[in-house]
Amino acid sequence: MVPLSYYLALSAVLFILGTAGFALRRNIITIFMCIELMLNAVNLALIAFSRFLSDLGGQLFVFFVIVVAAAEATVGLAIIIALYRNHESLSVDKLDSMKL
Amino acid sequence: MTGDIIRLFPEIVLGVSGILVILFAPFVPPRRQSLLGWFALFGVVAAGAADALTARDPGLAFGGSVSADSFSVYFIALFLLVAGVTILGSIHYLERENLPAGEFYALILLATLGMALMAAGLDLVLVFLGLELSSLSTYILAGYRRHDKRSNEASLKYFLLGSFATAFFLYGIAFVYGLSGTTNLMTLARRVGAAGGPNRTFAAVALLLIFVGLGFKVSAAPFQIWTPDVYQGAPAPVVAFLSVGPKAAAFAVLLRVFFGPLSEGSHMAFWLLWLSAILTMCLGNLAAIWQSNVKRLLAYSAIAQAGYILVGFAAGSADGRSAVSFYLVTYALMNTGAFLLVAQLAGGGEGRTEIDDYKGLARECPGKAAVLSVLLLSLSGIPTTAGFLGKFYLFRAAVDSHLIALTIIAVLNSVVSVYYYFRLIVVMYMEEGPAAVSTARLPGSLWAALAVSVAGIFYLGIFPSAFLEFARLTSNLLPH
Lengths: 100, 480
Fold this sequence. Notes:
The complex is a heterodimer of chains A (100) and B (480).
Chain A: H1 4-24, H2 28-53, H3 57-87
Chain B: H1 2-7, H2 9-24, H3 34-56, E1 59-61, E2 66-68, H4 70-97, H5 101-120, H6 124-142, H7 149-180, H8 185-194, H9 200-217, H10 227-233, H11 236-242, H12 245-258, H13 268-289, H14 294-315, H15 318-345, H16 361-364, H17 366-380, H18 386-400, H19 404-430, H20 444-462, H21 465-473
Antiparallel strand pairs in B: 1-2
């Protein structure tokens, strides 16, 4: 059996990739996808823990996370559409109407 | 089963009235939209009655995932206060700005439901769902003026950084689960106790991740960058709500997690809170000095206030925890009132929010200038106001825990903050008008909301003892 640490390492790598993408990417949709990647990294960790602890709670939690991620996508994309209608750009660098 | 439902009754009332508001909305004629506001307010009051009902029969519900105890009763009452005052203060605003009312009130009620679940939930899954419910509702509310570029921008920034933070919080929960095989805080405490202490590495990682996640929500440094832009761009009544409600809910969860079994035998939690408290206070106050926009000024002030609250956390004692609970209520009264009044003064399209727009306001509208001055004096912590006593209890708890350096820094920060709060008062009273802000008469509903804030500030500032007893009960974080 593949040891738990492998799964946790993979989950950490995915999470860090998501974090790095969030910080470095300039396109709003890509940034949003990076957040989804982070959530799925957590899902992987939860399922690995669940398997190794022989407890179903973690897998149940993953379903909740999936639903929440879907709700977040709905709200997020709606916000992005409203923003695009007014700004006609999807770059975060253009969002500076309130800088000092 | 009936007992379970009674213990979750405030949440049920909030959820049902939120859904009813949105169902009724299409059938209410456009000119009578304020009816929806009064209905939502009725829902909040009913939830308050339900909250009082749960207080009489405390205990666990739904297999230990929800707890009705003095902690949850106190915090739910706080959220209902914020929701009620915000709804009262928004009725006129929505009419003036010609914004749809149904969704607004429904989202406020659902966000309050989410916050109530965060305070009442003992299972971190439920806490997570509550956090998401309140966050998603407030993301939408922040972008409620959807034809306004700034509101769009505020909403997007809040959404992106908020979801980013949620992922950290979730990762922290995953580590709590990996540590103990449970997400229930009570079971966690039992298992960790039986094992003679938590696995240090896992507990440290979990605490750190949860702190990052909730640190964003409470705008603790170094996770406060989103705050000024969101508070400036979002509609002011929404800011009145989101600068207090979600913040208090996140602090409630931080209380339960940070003073639980995870931080047993480790100094990391303390240093994390200590360092973040100092950074948050200094960054907030130093940046606030240079602001020329009132909403932005209040945003930096809100960051600094979060720093003072973290001082109570760093104190770590039961006194520190009850001081945090007490301060959150005073903060709710002052900040909600201030943002609601700023929303009214800003006039149509929220065009007048610069400090210079307030020149000579005291001569034209002495009442409004006086109310705003009381709110600002309380924020800066002048005696006889609630803000003074709140800060006093926080700092005294820190002194009692021998955190002298931290207390000195906190007091110095408090002195610095007097400068920028007074600057606005000076502009209103000493400078020549005419005031550019809206001098229209205060609508009755907003007047009532401000009266609640001001009366609360003086009541807590002069007769705090009865309320303090209540706040003290919240230092029992988990039911026995």
